[in-house]
């Protein structure tokens, strides 16, 4: 009984234990099944609205660091730990998609193009806005198009990209400054470049070469007053907002870009050969063929016993051949970007090495950038963006000098004797006399001149963003920008400026100079933003306080008679001080601003924007410290009205109107104060002893105040057929008054110029931008973008009721005081001024003397030369006032430097893995004063034995009286004329790029996300009537003297090959 009970009890215990074990096993299996269920693979495909696959889309699990990227076919695979997870899809240019899985393991996603949805975000002052919500005129530059140009600086590829934005540079020298003007020039004598805002930091005169184009995320141009007025006193010339790339949440992505470019001159000038050159010299001086020289040092061209006929096949030296070369541009760029929900980062670096087409010219750039954004919690976010750039530009600037061929390099290259054989050692052309600086071997001179400009720039931008409430955000930004520019110049004995040969006027022997300028800029910006919707009412309010300061100093010295030229710049301390090169200056300015803006819209149909900014600047006297700049704008999206909503033809329509005032304070830091100095060349005698003394340098003006620009803008935005066609049109008028004009003073004042608030300028124009999606199919797409801008500029008033103001380009000593441009009330700025060319004097203009000579008839006006010296074949000008003598009273407008319209036309094609981009850019209606022709198509300077362009072979002779060119020696050097004013209009095939994306199947084997190889070309072809090297030139880059071409560095054609790799 007990045994039975015991067995029964044991059986019960075993069964109970087995049940526990079975239950435990089931729990483990269930747990494993759960674990298995938590790591399931989700696959899918991402397409656009045309059902074309989208490669490169980032697929991320919400609240996780796990992410994937779609392949070339738009497919992806990602492992999820929860079948109810939410996937986030993001891709540049498309609206983000948030997709709950809800247990699905296969998904299909369609992403909308932001452009077609009007939800593309543009950066505006102190914030961002969607395109559909804009009330102002903002131009966005497609960085995907811009970066296809093989250039060092983004500025070199901006021309023609945005309507109303005119871009030019002095010439084609590597690293040369880019001049950008938005909607015409406001100022006459002051800077017209826009304000640059780089990652929130406002910088005037920013050097775009310090940024690698690959680092730029977006570039937006604020054009009308409602967009720029938030920058108040600094927004009158427009605002260019540059935002650099940051890290993105997701797996780390490494991007590398390598480009190798080959650079060559677009055009070189055709020069006379030896025979033609000698024939010209014999026309100038028939005795030049004599075998007997008048002095022992004087050598004639023709050798004893030789005549002109003997030089028919004589060798010709074209000095352009050894002077120019095939240049290069190598660009190496690498970036690491990534992050998670809390932290994103980006680290980039680049090296650019450019060799110019002129020997011993080029530039090198080294750049590094670190960006870090950290979300401390749900309310607080901090970040830092630090960039360091070092840019070295080397080589003599071809248009740098303003007085002689020694530094106007092309003058010596074009002017050198073609009869002299090229030599790598012979420095001076001994075959002709008198010696001039163009007789120094230009190749040896260029190879030995040291001209370095070294720029180091550090920019650090930190911010703190705190969400005080759900709708109220505080943002505090602190920024520093330090720039140091070092200039080095050295002339050894193998240069014209350092030669011991006294014929070249190099009185300082071996010499050099150094200078350093430092700019320390800081800024603090504090803004509060309230963003709240009340039903259909949407309100965004911004209020802020900003402050900024700048300190700058410059010092330098020069020395000559250096005993040891092998030391180069390092030996300057052993030489004799050159007083004119010794300098030291220091300056500073500070600014404070209060600002506010209200953006309101009702149901995304009716929009109102108002802003106000008060700016205080230390550049003005205390009574004029503050300036006040309001703006207002309104817009109506009429396609959201019931009577048009859902329309299948007109998919979007918006009317815009804006008004606002902006300012300008771009004068020297203490222009309101008079200044004194201690120049080395001045002094007074006390007790028969010369004593250095202080003298007045500049007269101040305590009444200086803000220059103010008032602008009205009206625009319309239209989209058709689901945004397949988009049109934006703007008309504007802006008037600038109280111009900060550097006015000329009476000589009795003892000063030459002083700043005054006088004068007024008006710009008005029309801007059109058309974008189309021409074809979009599974394998092929074709999109186009066209823009054109018309701007009319007019001077409304000048200083002291003057009717006109003359400007004299400083290109050569003897022409310093010769006016070449005029600004006249009622007419545009930058008009060329001079005589109207009237061909050449013919035999019919003369009476014959008894001795067979020629005397100008009494009813024929002289050309400014003595009447008795004028001969048939001399240049002839129109006597406008009919007094029988051509002089300055006969000066008139002979050309316009400002174009009638400018524009650009882009076409982008894709076919499967191939893509092609073609960009045309043009300028129409502007003229160029081709001063190079004045010198090398008639020798207006009268320099003996100066080589000439081959076009001067066709000149007036007794047997060729119908030629447009005057006879040898038939010039008049007293002024500019319409003879050398040429049509500067051009159409340029600016950029072409062909790319190919390698198939994904190939790349998976080497674990690479994407590889794109490409070939690019810049400045491939130009259609123009201009006879100079390049029509895209303005040597002095000034609104007063635009379109001036002399000794410019030739613009280059670039052919590039490269690859872009993503890991």
From TrEMBL:
Q: Which UniProt keywords apply?
A: Cell outer membrane, Membrane, TonB box, Transmembrane, Transmembrane beta strand, Transport
User: Molecular function (GO) terms listed?
Assistant: hydrolase activity, hydrolyzing O-glycosyl compounds
| InterPro entries in the cross-refs | Beta-barrel_TonB, Beta-barrel_TonB_sf, CarboxyPept-like_regulatory, Dockerin_1_rpt, EF_Hand_1_Ca_BS, Plug_dom, Plug_dom_sf, TonB-dep_OMP_SusC/RagA
Instruction: Report the residue ranges that make up the TonB-dependent receptor plug domain in this protein.
Output: 131-239
> Is Transport a UniProt keyword of this protein?
yes
- PROSITE patterns assigned: CLOS_CELLULOSOME_RPT, EF_HAND_1, TONB_DEPENDENT_REC_3
Q: Where in the cell is it found?
A: Cell outer membrane
- Identify the main location: membrane
Q: Which family does it belong to?
A: Belongs to the TonB-dependent receptor family.
Q: What protein is this chain from?
A: TonB-linked SusC/RagA family outer membrane protein
Q: Which organism is it from?
A: Mucilaginibacter yixingensis
The lineage, from the top, is: Bacteria, Pseudomonadati, Bacteroidota, Sphingobacteriia, Sphingobacteriales
